[in-house]
Amino acid sequence: MKKNNWSKMVQTFSRxxxxxxxxxxxxxxxxxxxxxxxxxxxxxxxTLSNWTKEMDSAIFYHLxxxxxxxxKQSFPEGExxxxxxxxxxxxxxxxVKPTDPRSFFGNEIPGFSIFDxxxxxxxxxxxxxxxxxxxxxxxEVLRERxxxxxxxxxEETGDAEETxxxxxxxxxxxxxxxxxxxxxxxxxxxxxxxxHLPDETDPNSAMHGEINITNVSDRLAEGLKRxxxxxxxxxxxxxxxxxxxxxxxxxxxxxxRDIVAEAVAGNQEIQYMFDLHRDALRRDKTTQTIEGEDxxxxxxxxxxGHPDYERNLKVATELHGLMEEEYPGLxxxxxxxxxxxGNGVYNQDMAENAxxxxxxxxxxxxxxxxxxxxxxxxxxxxxxxxxxxxQSDE
Length: 394
Hints:
Elements lengths: L1 H35 L8 H8 L4 H11 L17 H10 L7 H4 L12 E5 L15 H5 L8 H16 L15 E4 L27 H14 L4 E3 L4 H7 L7 H15 L5 E6 L5 H4 E4 L2 E4 L1 E6 L5 H18 L4 E7 L16 E6 L6 H28 L1
Parallel strand pairs: 2-3, 2-4, 4-9, 7-8
Antiparallel strand pairs: 1-8, 5-6, 7-9
Helix pairs in contact: 8-13, 12-13
Organism: Oceanobacillus aidingensis
InterPro entries: Spore_II_P (IPR010897)
Protein name: Stage II sporulation protein P
């Protein structure tokens, strides 16, 4: 009898020992695979975040209460029940959220996903005016058009040129000297504005080789230089460069990336990098009246398709806050885009403090854009010199 019992115990132990050995060997092999696999195929915090970002946050809170029951007391009345596991499993395996109808149709209806982006900050509680990017054929971008400047626009431009020629001293006692610490360029350099294109009415065709967003870049650079901040402006015609290389307009960031790489390699002093664009939204969404004058609204766009986007997000967030204080309503906010609805990187992985900035829309005028450029130069100079003072104290 004792032999039978002993035999059964040995058999049970042997079976369990075999299971334990298989379990530990499996864990060892899994860890070996995860550490040996190429980085591109490894799990990352970003991957796990994408898997779980649509899950109800209460699920994670319930997991915490399983370890510390004291947290249950903080649940609002009627919300203490743990979500059904069937719903959690559905969300994890299908990205379908039963409480959000968008999750049912977002991947099925063409174009629906562009409205499912993240506007991290907004002015005036407006979370609906997402940026719209024109993407016309390259031949349409390069097509010759008539362009005009109004009297006021010409006067503003002339005043800026006279100021630069006649005044060598800056408005600020602080200066970066001969160091250009800001680099400005325009990936979509031919983006223009309908008020200056008398024969054009289609927002997607608001393109011109001379009267375009590059004028705003020049204006911003002038404002920064007057504040003592050395600024380098790139004047590459990326439309022509695309044409020379036989590439399409959708490949604009590929060619601008080469220019950015050259700039970073050739100037180790660059601390901030701005890529200026104009939105395809209409005037009522891109114009703000401040003290009786119209300004072209500004939007900060952050690409999250690279691991270091948070450093750029921090800069954009702080600039948005400062602009809200000085020019309420001028900033449309901070918009976050990943690769699912655009480029997702926008060359912002190539340097610290890199931003894409949307200036106005297709219906704004140069004088409105110049006011906004001057406002951003003022706000950024305060931000820059404050940051420099902090660094010098450290």
